[in-house]
Amino acid sequence: MLKLFRRSQEEQRADEQRIHESLEKTRGGLMGRLGAIFQANEITEATWEELEETLIMGDVGIETTEALVSRVRTRVAKENVKRPDQAQVVLKQEMLAVLGGAEPMEIDEPRLLTVILIVGVNGSGKTTSIAKLARLYKQHGRKVVLAAADTFRAAAVHQLEIWGERVGVEVISQGQGADPGAVVYDAIRACQESRNADLLIIDTAGRLHTKFNLMKELEKVRNVAARQVHKAPHETFLVLDATTGQNALSQARHFKEAVAISGVILTKLDGTAKGGMVFAIAQELGLPVRFVGTGERMEDLAPFDARVFVDSLFQ
Amino acid sequence: MFESLSEKLQRVFDGLSSRGRLSEADVDAAMREVRLALLEADVNYKVVKEFIARVKERAIGAEVMKSLTPAQQVIKIVNEELIAVLGEPAKLNLSGPTPHVVMLVGLQGSGKTTTAAKLALTLRKAGQRPLLVAADTYRPAAIHQLETLGKQLDIPVHSEGDRLPPPRICANAVARAKEAAYTVVILDTAGRLQINETLMAELDQIKALAKPQEILLVADSMTGQQAVNVAKTFHERLGLTGLILTKVDGDARGGAAISMREVTGVPIKYLGVGEKTDALEVFHPDRMASRILGMGDVLTLIERAQESMDQEKSMSAAKRLMKGEFDLEDFLQQMQQMRKIGPFSQLLDMIPGFNRMSKDIAPDVTDQQMRRIEAIISSMTREERRHPEVINGNRKRRIARGSGTEVQDINELLSQFKQIKRMMKQFGDSGGKRKGKFPSFPGFPMG
């Protein structure tokens, strides 16, 4: 399949570096112990207990942790693995298997107008992630337009407009209190008719996934896009704060049900947060992580690479 | 917020039913489940470990009081320990000369700006003259956001743009408050990572210049294992005086509350429970603990009910409900009264045992759906309301036409009503047995 752009070698290296650096603190902290656990001379009951503890403290969640540890244990016994460093290889393989090889993203497919819908709970980092995404794709030669469909939170439109200015992309808005569906309708028309844009990113208001009416509103926004553009939205990303605990799974489940999310953007990975809940999300819902937000600068967004992510956890 | 944890514990304790002294095996079985539930609720691993050890020590060999089952005895111990961890209720310290300075700190996206506005509104209702201070000069439009909220609430906002350093802005605001006789100054600082040295040093400076009387950590109730490190670092650096837990209206199990309390020892002072500016609640550790244990937040419910409910009416309805004499007229009346108190789903969660049931009966009863239910019942004759069993196909079609709904909506409502009635009757029947578990029922509006 023809890609609109392919990432160059250097870009790829820079991205790996970014994930790597952002996980530096994670490695130094608890998840760093993952590597240390297998430094011991032999595999004992304590090894497994320590592994379980480390994974739980990395927000992997008890169910996913137990499943993972039990799979590794079974394989270690069956394959007659004696050395801890070999057991570590098995663990890595199993962790990678959970995160899985994801299909290529729809964003990169050539079409007249690609529509991306961004959703998430309050304060997860939607608007900032959108700015970073816009910058990334603008750099790759796409004509990007942003739709300010968070018409609820005070000054959200203004916030997106400031980002739009900084990145150098146009923002379509109707101000606070406007109907989000109408904003999306307008934005798509603008992209197709006057702006000649090929990538529209829609910012929506943060909402707790348990709010029935707000989730209905999101469905409506999605339908507006679907009616105007064939197969739109082509990607719907859930923005997830890496400091979130097990509730992340509930968020992913509800948003998936309402608007069929196709992937996750993991934000604030520059903290000491480990983002371990992406294992549970991948395992239970089969949702791939697509991007990681690794810092406060505009360029701090990297495409997610499961291998780099897992490797980094062990170094 | 703690529903799922409560469910877990309740299921465990329902399983323990032998009498006498608590055996080690009993306690072990219970503690395994308690541990799992707490971990799933995002309580920090180490905090869980210590908590379990403490409870276990107290529980093994503990005599089961005559009036209690072993399950209730364990609940009692877990409950007491949880209350101890969650700490004493505490108010904002607003003593001494004015203006009192309240500083809000926290990670990005935890909800500081929204909380600042809610807090200002709460304090104004309590007779204070609040001044909001826009000290987040980093996030685009953060100042604009606070100004907009201030305008909505008609509460003044001190802002000097994003050019001045935040410590200066805060100091200027405190000086302005002294001159203009504002009684409380609320500092909305920028979100920051606890490991960002530059930004943490900025908080030191703000603290030195503005001399806040209260330094509150605003934390997302959905936070995972990290909660411990975040709270600990902020506390060691600044000396927190309290915590505010946000987004409590979601379905997060909120174990972070327990973790943060345990590592800081400072009280949880408020809960953010919604997007509206009045959605800030005072934290009640005792109530929260009983909520964790699936006892429902009976006290909060009663308090709210008392504000807007006809006490006597609901008492008699409650009695009728328990006896299974509840009819659709009572149902409608209760619904109308409840709409005055708050969203239906929030109420269901507060009723003991109901957080388990509410999922079966009404997974998502929204206010809109409630209006529809009202329309349906209003379209019934008096006889139909008192004796729903007479409603046949013909009547259903008439009711559907009258209320602008479909026959299947009528069916759904009737079957839900039947379920509620049946469950409530079970509650009533087992009243004697369950007395220890659900001690306080006065004013309980659904029954």
Question: How would you portray this structure in words?
Answer:
The complex is a heterodimer of chains A (315) and B (447). By secondary structure, chain A is α/β, with parallel strands linked by helices. Chain A is 51% helix and 13% strand. Chain A has helices at 9-22, 24-28, 33-37, 45-57, 62-78, 84-99, 126-139, 156-167, 180-195, 212-228, 247-259, 277-285, 306-314; strands spanning 114-119, 144-149, 170-172, 199-204, 235-241, 263-267, 289-293, 301-303. In chain A, strand 7 and strand 8 form a beta hairpin. In chain A, helix 6 runs antiparallel to helix 13 (306-314) and helix 9 packs parallel to helix 10. Chain A is elongated. Chain A starts with 8 loop residues before the first helix and ends with a helix. The model of chain A is unreliable at 1-6 (pLDDT under 50). By secondary structure, chain B is of the alpha/beta class. Chain B has 21 helices and 8 strands. Chain B has helices spanning 3-15, 24-40, 45-59, 70-86, 112-125, 142-153, 166-179, 197-210, 227-238, 255-264, 285-292, 298-308, 311-323, 328-341, 344-350, 354-361, 367-378, 382-386, 393-403, 407-429, 431-434, and strands at residues 100-105, 130-135, 157-158, 184-189, 214-220, 242-246, 268-272, 280-282. In chain B, strand 6, helix 10 and strand 7 (268-272) form a beta-alpha-beta unit. In chain B, helix 2 (24-40) runs antiparallel to helix 3 (45-59), helix 3 (45-59) crosses helix 4 and helix 5 (112-125) runs parallel beside helix 6. Chain B is flat, with a radius of gyration of 25 Å. At the A-B interface, helix 4, helix 8 and helix 11 of A face helix 2, helix 6 and helix 9 of B.
